[in-house]
# Entry
Amino acid sequence: MATATKLEVLDAKGKKAGSVDLPEAIFGTETNVPLIHQVVTAQLAAARQGTHKTKNRGERSGSGVKPFKQKGTGRARQGSVRMPQHRGGGIVHGPVPRDYSQRTPKKMIAAALTGLLSDRARANRLHVVESFGIGEKPSTKSAREFLVSVAPGKRVLVVVTREDEVTVLSVRNLQHVHVLYQDQLNAYDVVVSDDLVFTKAAFDAFVAGRAAKEDTK
# Structure
């Protein structure tokens, strides 16, 4: 059975309010940098629309009539003003719509994420809080003050449950703060963030979800 270490859980005032186990299988794995690079690159490639398009000679507007006679002018022969060498002519070997997505096995995606989470945990950049202590009404000011006291990094990734709408509304407009649901956590958003802040509910749900996936293998 995988071992686990402890991580303090902070309350709304930044004081210790308990602890959670960090499963070795999720937060104690080796960080494989080349693997992370491959997964993140694939994720960014999949986000590209691939709708770029230039018009070739046949798609440009303009007459298809030969601009001048073939011989006798001393000039190079020309067949149409829509040819690439003419102003407003078609583009040669221009980009066409394509799919940039890369096939990435699920095991590689999972390994990259656990490697990053393990790295953040070893660097004390992983934080779990009971809640932001905001109450029933969203407050961006309160969320900002709380994050400053909990997460020292410039770029912060906040992970919450889908039911925690108040926290989402409170942090989504903060500069350098990105918010995700626990089932959306991915390698790219972790790698571009200095600190990760989980609410305890989101942390428990994430760990439970990972454990369920392991059990189904």
Q: What stands out?
A: The first strand starts at residue 4 and ends at 10. The mean pLDDT is 92.
